[in-house]
Fold this protein.
Amino acid sequence: MRGFASQTNWRNQSLKPFDFAFPELNAAALLPLAILAITGILALIIEMISPKRDNNLIVGISIFGLFATAVSIFTQIGNPAYTTGAGMIISDSFGSALQLIVVVATSITVLFSESYLREKRIPFGEFYPLLLWSATGALIMCVTTNLLMLFIGLEILSVALYVLAGLSRSEEKSEESALKYFLLGAFASGFLLYGIALLYGATGSLQIENVRLAWVQNAEGSRILIGFGLGLMLIGLSFKASFVPFHQWTPDVYQGAPTNVTAFMASVSKVAAVAALWRVLSETSNVQAIWMPALTVLAVLTMTVGNLVALVQKDVKRTLGYSSISHAGYILVGVLAGIKNHSLNGSATIPYYLLSYSIMTIGAFAIVSLVAKRGSENTRFESLHGLWKKSPFLAVLLIIFVASLLGMPPTSGFLAKFYIFQDAVRADMGWLALVLALNSAISVYYYLGIAYAATVPDTEDAPLAIVTPSVSVKVACALCAVIVIGIGLFVSPLMDSLNLPNQNVGGFETSAMK
């Protein structure tokens, strides 16, 4: 009767039932999303009307669109933080920095993909619009604190990746990876969406910050719903970020998917998942009594399992897949330490680590992609034998990327791990920092195994399987190496340009390393 009465009162009101106001929109905050999405549409139109499989124009359009997107993002850095679209999009330096990482990683992937696709005999032009749309979903996840927009961004990112993982239609492994990724991705999305529903039921709002307010008010047992809702959301995001024990899909999908898709997935997808995790946890920092112990255990498991299982792998892509899992654990330590240190506006450690990790991972996969030959690829360690003799340039670059993944100076990987170690100590999580250091020591074995494989001469029985690299592949790998070394030597200028706080190493500014 109460609902019926309210409906009757509504009908008797003088206001028209369709009167509503559009939310105010800031075009500058939405411009990067629009540019990248429209670029993907243009790339698809060109692919449809192109009389032959010549993707050079599509590649050019994609690179130009990504450059325009990067410029539009960079203009937002340094401006005061603000929200737009009824609070669904937030513009701040932290989100803009992560968006730039997504754009840079996507650009390098586009740069080395065409020669790989042709050698693999899958020169499908639809690869590029799918890649751009997936990156658009990642951009959304970097700049939202709205649960609905978070889910939309995640699905845009994931649906395109499901298709890209199965792009090599003639290979059983590629089809298997796409199916596994789709099924487990849909499973993870279900957890995430159900968690969002519970949080909405507890707060009556889709804004993450309202979870904190509802927890304080503790209205009618809302804390129970909040606890379950956050738990389900974290399970969903843990699938996407490859945290143990939600990592089972990662090595199989990484191995079966085309190598350029694996590079994109290992970098951009990780950035988006960590961005969403940071937004959720930082906005619910007063609820950390619930999620902090669980995520601390996940961090230890993720680092340890990823490194230990990587020790026994014989395939380079699977090894890098487990390496990606271990790095997810390192990043999770940085997230927990940053929130515990009350760096709620975005710690500089997280963007720096994600940039370093993304570039060195893409560089390593770009070199591994050269084993694609006559439509198939063998990515076992033996496939790298003879690389030093045939292409010393690429062998040196691979060693640089492996050294950075390991965390050796003067690469950016060293400073990235050091920052996380330092943040953990400052947050009174010294034992977690010790676990991180021990796991880094464990990873020496399999990273040196990759570097060693590149220096072993090939034999007559097993000649070098790597094809002659194209100019674009060399440029992409060289660019990755320059970034990995450059941001390791010139940290302070990078942080200043992104308007993020400088880091201190041993009490002195990292710019002193120049």
User: Anything to note?
Assistant: The chain has one domain: 25-513. The radius of gyration is 23 Å.
